[in-house]
């Protein structure tokens, strides 16, 4: 299974999505910072499962409709940072779907995630990640679970990795840094947490018009 995660930088990179899907052939497309009202219902064979609607810039998730059957959808609000309270850019920071493989009946949970911005403390982002995974588990206890997106966590990732392991998940970074706009903030921002999946690779794709580079997750259910 191939999953692309991409922060569109306030929807600026939305025009690239069709070419991105055509070139890399993902089964799922997880988006952050998108103008949900401007999203198409379909992108090169991927159907829009759902998008958040309580955010100024939202999340969206597309799935390959000839591979999966959509079983459930959930949007999740997380603990807010001071930035969120003052500017109100986001309430729903997780969009999860429960899917069933049409061929073998296997069910799985995949989510698009966008953590609080860098103005928040790492401790808040760790809290958000734990809460997101806990809420997603209720969509199907015991099912394989993959959460990808913009974690806004460029430094001290060993603390995050331990937090994720303590929660029963694996944290996997891509093969190259994903954020390159400002030298002081360059690093890995976009990655995956998973349980029940073997992460075969996470490739950082070439820079486009967003300040984030998309990542391509290739994974297998264990």
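^ structure tokens above, recovered residues below v
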């Amino acid at each position: 299974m191939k999953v692309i995660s991409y922060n569109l930088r306030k929807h600026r990179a939305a025009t690239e999505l069709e070419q991105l899907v055509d070139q890399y052939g993902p089964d799922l497309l997880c988006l952050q910072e998108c103008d949900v009202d401007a999203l198409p219902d379909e992108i090169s064979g991927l159907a829009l499962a759902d998008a958040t609607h309580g955010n100024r810039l939202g999340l969206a998730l597309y799935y390959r409709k000839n591979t999966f059957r959509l079983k459930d959808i959930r949007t999740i609000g997380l603990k807010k940072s001071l930035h969120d309270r003052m500017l109100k850019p986001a309430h729903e920071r997780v969009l999860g779907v429960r899917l069933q493989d049409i061929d073998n009946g296997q069910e799985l949970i995949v989510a698009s995630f966008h953590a609080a911005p860098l103005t928040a403390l790492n401790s808040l982002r760790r809290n958000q990640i734990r809460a997101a995974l806990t809420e997603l588990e209720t969509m199907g206890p015991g099912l394989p679970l993959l959460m990808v997106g913009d974690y806004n966590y460029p430094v001290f990732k060993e603390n995050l990795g331990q937090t994720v392991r303590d929660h029963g998940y694996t944290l996997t970074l891509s093969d190259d840094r994903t954020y390159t706009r400002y030298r002081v903030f360059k690093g890995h921002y976009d990655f995956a947490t998973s349980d029940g999946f073997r992460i075969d690779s996470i490739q950082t794709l070439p820079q486009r018009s967003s300040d984030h580079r998309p990542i391509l997750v290739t994974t297998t259910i264990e």
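The mean pLDDT is 91.
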